TrEMBL record:
Annotated keywords: Membrane, Transmembrane, Transmembrane helix
Pfam families cross-referenced by the UniProt entry: Acyltransferase
Protein name: Phospholipid/glycerol acyltransferase domain-containing protein
Entries under SMART domains matching the protein: PlsC (SM00563)
UniProt xrefs under CDD domains: LPLAT_LCLAT1-like (cd07990)
Keyword presence, Transmembrane: yes
Organism listed in the record: marine sediment metagenome
Amino acid sequence: MPHWLTGSLTCLLILLNTLIGIGPMLVFGLLKALIPNADLRRGCSKAVMWVAETWAEINKRIFHLLLPTQWDVRCDTTLASEQSYLVISNHQTWVDIPALVNAFNRKTPYFKFFLKRALIWVPFLGLAFWALDYPFMKRYSKAHLAKHPEDQGKDLEITRRACEKFQQLPVTVVNYLEGTRFTPGKHRQQQSPFRYLLKPKAGGIAFVVAALGAQMRSVLDVTIVYPDERPPGFWQLVSGQVTRITVDIRCRTLPTQLIDGDYSLDLEYRNQFQQWVSQLWIEKDQRIAALRRELAERP
């Protein structure tokens, strides 16, 4: 099929799947918000997750049926849906999210993303994000914080409150340490020391670890690589123009000394956490280079 027809058909099927799934998800989400009983709320949370996983699984099948994309998923560990995970990934494009779904759906608990607050207004999806208890973040510029210092640390407080909800069930928390999608312009502006990555931010992940470290000992270090130097957009994916997506997953044990600590007040703990994150990023940058060389050598 021509790309425009493939893309139109794929989007139509995804939209139909979304319209079918959004109703039950919102019903269970509203019940969860209204019911005072904790056990019943947990049951509603499980129901919301089941609907979301089913929606994602159908989308996976749509992609595999209609698209020529080869999903090259490599994982050095056995994944379990009863265990909580912290996923750390590089971030280049909206296609990263379908890549993660394809790699993890129904192999780990359903994802919890930290989202920009503006996404709550996206038709259908914003309501689904609310029902799934996705935390909505509002990032403040340095100029804004200089004028309004009272807003300092609000994102981290949102992270802490969100993680309290995550303690009730197994969860997979996804954190993009770069805080935004990689672009050459942002890379130059930051003067990033990495070739393929922006500078990582350790504060958000430190609060996740502080809140969930007791139940989340495994870190899944995910590296996503695309064939072209410029990462594809969502339309390129759904229209069949992406030949291959490589998702490299490596399991890392969270260092014991990082499980308990106060990132805000303990300078030594903060330095240890930042050093650990920096080492992860050094290795990830090297892994991206190796994966790119491998893709370039393919016939």
